Design the sequence.
C-alpha cells in the first residue's frame, strides 16, 4: 500500500479539515485570542489529525499488504482467504465477509463440476466394462465358428476394442486423480503382450518384428505402458512403406541412470514440419490426412500417460526413412512398491 | 469321469461367469479343446458348488452376483488351492495386483484372444505336472528344456523354435494344430517369427526327424494345419 496514493484518496477529507481549520482560525483571530494559544491549538489539532490519518493508514496497510503479497505468492490464488486474519476495521470486515461468501459459492460451483466429472468418468469406466462383454462374446463366437473364420471380422472387432481402449486411457490421462499403480514390471513381458496383440496385423503385413531385450525391470504401471507401446507399434504398422521390407524393432538399452526403450520402424516417417507437433491434441499432420483417417489423439494420450508415469518420451524421424520413439524410464527407487 | 481319445482323464474346468453368452461360448471353446467344462449356476452358494464339482481349474470373473470374484477367491483360498485364472473386463493394474495377492494364478482381461486363453490354461496345467520337461513320443524321450530327443543312445538336437513346434504337435498328437496356433505358441515364447520362417522351421524339423529315423511324422493338412502321427 502506497502512502502517497492513500493521501490522494483522502484528498477531499483533508480539504474539508483544512477548510474547517481555516474557519476556526479566522474565528480565533476575530476574537483576538493571543497568538500563543492559536499556535498551541494548531499544534495539538495537527498532531491529532495526523495521528488519525496514520492509525487508519497502518491498520489498512497491514491487511492489504498481506492480501497483495499472498495473492502474488500463491499459485492457487483463490486460497488467499485461508491465509488472512480478519481485519479490525469496518470496511475491511465487509470486504472479508464478501470475499468469504464469494469463495464459498465458487467452491460449491467447482465442487459441482468436479462431482459431475467424477460421475462421468465412473460412468465411462463402467460403460467400457460393459462394452467389453459383447466384444469378448463376439471374439469367442468367431473363434468357435465351425466354418473357417474370416480374418476381416476379427480385425474389425480388434479395431473396436482399440477405440474403446482409447476412450478409457483418454479419461484416465485427463483425470487429476492418481489411478495408476507403479511397480517393478518386466519390460519383456509387456513387449510380449503388445506383440501378441498385434501378431495378426504384423504377419498380415509381412512386417519383421524384432525384439532385442534382456530381462530388465522398469518402474511403471504395466497396463498403461502396454497401452503406450501398443499405440506406438500400431502407428508403425499403420505407416509402413511399401517399397521396403518392413521392420519394427524394439530395443532395450540399459544405462546407469535410466533404461531406454527404442521403438524403431523403417516406415514412411514424419515430415520435418510436423514432427514437433505430433504430441499435440487432435494434430493429424500430413500423414494422418493422406494415409488413413487419424484422430490425432493417439500420441497425445501417449504423451499424457508418460508424463503422469514420469517417463520421458522423444520422437525422431526422417521422412521416407525411419521413425524412432524412445521412452526413458528412470532408475529411481523412490516409487518402488514392495509386493 | 470323462476320458479323452488317448484314455487320459480329461481336466475339469469350471466357468464362473454370469454373462450367459460368454459362459456358453467359453464352454464350447473348452469342449473343443478337449477339456471337461462346467458352468456354475448357483452363484449364491458358489463356494460349496466349487468344492462339490472339484474342478482342476477355475475361470473366474470379477463382476459376478453375490460375492464378487475377488471375495469369492479369498474365501475359496481358505479351503482350497485349485488354480484360478481371473478373467475380467477390469483392465487396471490395481485389480490385477489385488487378484494375484488374493491367490489368483493368472489374470486375463476381456476381450482376450481365445488361443491365448487356452495357452495360459495349458501352461498352468503344465506347471502343475511334475514331469515338466520330459515326455514321450512312442519310445522316444523328449527333453523340452534341453531341446533334445533321445532314442536308445541316439540324440537329436532341436533348435528352440523346432522344439516349441514339436512339443505343441506332441501334446495335441493325432489332432490338427493350425498354423495360427503354432504361431501363437511361438510368439508367446518370444520367438517373433514370420510365416516364411514357420514354414522353413517345419520343413527343417521334418528333415531332422527323417534323418533320425522317424519318417512322415508330420502330416500337412492343406488349409488347416499340421498333425503329428
Sequence:
Amino acid at each position: 500500500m502506497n502512502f502517497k496514493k492513500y493521501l490522494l484518496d483522502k484528498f477531499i477529507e483533508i480539504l474539508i479539515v483544512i477548510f474547517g481549520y481555516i474557519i476556526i482560525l479566522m474565528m480565533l483571530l476575530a476574537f483576538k485570542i493571543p497568538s500563543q494559544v492559536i499556535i498551541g491549538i494548531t499544534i495539538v489539532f495537527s498532531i491529532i489529525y495526523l495521528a488519525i490519518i496514520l492509525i487508519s493508514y497502518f491498520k489498512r496497510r497491514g491487511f492489504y499488504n498481506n492480501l497483495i503479497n499472498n495473492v502474488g505468492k500463491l499459485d492457487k490464488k483463490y486460497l488467499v482467504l485461508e491465509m488472512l486474519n480478519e481485519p479490525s476495521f469496518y470496511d475491511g470486515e465487509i470486504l472479508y465477509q464478501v470475499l468469504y461468501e464469494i469463495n464459498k459459492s465458487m467452491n460449491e460451483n467447482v465442487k459441482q463440476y468436479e462431482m459431475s466429472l467424477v460421475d462421468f468418468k465412473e460412468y465411462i469406466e463402467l460403460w467400457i466394462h460393459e462394452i467389453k462383454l459383447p466384444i469378448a462374446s463376439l471374439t469367442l463366437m468367431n473363434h468357435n465358428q465351425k466354418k473357417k473364420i474370416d480374418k476381416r471380422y476379427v480385425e474389425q472387432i480388434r479395431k473396436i476394442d482399440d477405440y474403446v481402449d482409447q476412450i478409457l486411457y483418454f479419461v484416465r490421462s485427463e483425470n487429476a486423480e492418481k489411478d495408476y499403480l507403479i511397480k517393478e514390471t518386466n519390460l519383456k513381458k509387456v513387449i510380449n503382450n503388445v506383440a501378441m496383440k498385434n501378431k495378426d496385423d504384423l504377419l498380415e503385413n509381412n512386417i519383421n518384428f524384432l525384439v532385442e531385450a534382456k530381462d530388465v525391470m522398469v518402474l511403471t504401471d504395466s497396463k498403461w505402458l502396454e497401452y503406450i507401446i501398443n499405440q506406438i507399434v500400431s502407428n508403425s504398422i499403420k505407416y509402413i512403406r511399401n517399397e521396403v521390407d518392413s521392420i519394427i524393432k524394439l530395443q532395450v538399452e540399459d544405462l546407469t541412470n535410466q533404461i531406454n526403450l527404442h521403438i524403431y520402424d523403417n516406415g514412411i516417417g514424419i515430415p520435418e514440419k510436423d514432427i514437433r507437433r505430433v504430441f499435440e491434441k487432435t494434430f493429424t499432420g500430413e500423414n494422418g490426412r493422406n494415409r488413413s483417417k487419424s484422430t490425432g489423439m493417439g500420441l497425445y494420450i501417449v504423451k499424457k500417460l508418460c508424463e503422469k508415469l514420469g517417463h520421458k518420451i522423444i520422437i525422431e524421424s526422417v521422412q521416407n526413412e525411419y521413425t524412432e520413439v524412445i521412452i526413458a524410464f528412470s532408475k529411481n527407487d523412490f516409487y518402488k512398491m514392495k509386493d | 469321469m470323462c476320458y479323452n481319445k488317448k484314455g487320459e482323464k480329461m481336466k475339469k474346468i469350471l466357468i464362473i461367469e454370469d454373462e450367459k453368452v460368454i459362459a456358453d461360448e467359453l464352454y464350447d471353446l473348452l469342449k473343443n479343446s478337449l477339456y471337461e467344462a462346467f458352468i456354475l449356476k448357483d452363484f449364491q452358494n458358489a463356494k460349496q458348488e466349487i468344492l462339490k464339482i472339484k474342478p482342476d481349474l477355475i475361470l473366474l470373473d470379477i463382476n459376478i452376483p453375490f460375492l464378487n470374484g475377488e471375495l469369492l477367491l479369498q474365501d475359496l483360498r481358505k479351503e482350497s488351492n485349485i488354480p484360478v485364472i481371473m478373467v475380467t473386463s477390469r483392465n487396471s493394474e490395481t485389480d490385477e495386483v489385488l487378484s494375484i495377492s488374493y491367490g489368483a494364478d493368472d489374470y486375463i482381461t476381456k476381450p482376450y484372444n481365445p488361443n491365448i486363453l487356452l495357452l495360459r490354461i495349458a501352461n498352468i496345467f503344465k506347471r502343475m505336472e511334475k514331469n515338466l520337461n520330459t515326455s514321450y513320443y512312442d519310445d522316444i524321450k523328449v527333453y523340452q528344456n534341453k531341446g533334445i530327443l533321445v532314442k536308445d543312445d541316439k540324440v537329436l538336437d532341436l533348435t528352440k523354435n523346432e522344439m516349441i513346434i514339436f512339443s505343441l504337435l506332441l501334446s495335441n498328437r493325432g489332432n490338427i494344430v493350425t498354423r495360427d496356433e503354432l504361431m501363437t505358441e511361438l510368439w508367446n515364447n518370444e520367438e517373433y517369427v514370420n510365416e516364411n520362417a514357420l514354414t522353413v522351421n517345419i520343413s527343417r524339423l521334418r528333415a531332422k526327424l527323417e534323418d533320425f529315423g522317424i519318417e512322415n511324422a508330420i502330416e500337412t493338412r492343406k488349409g488347416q494345419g499340421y498333425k503329428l502321427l
User: Anything to note?
Assistant: The mean pLDDT of chain A is 88.
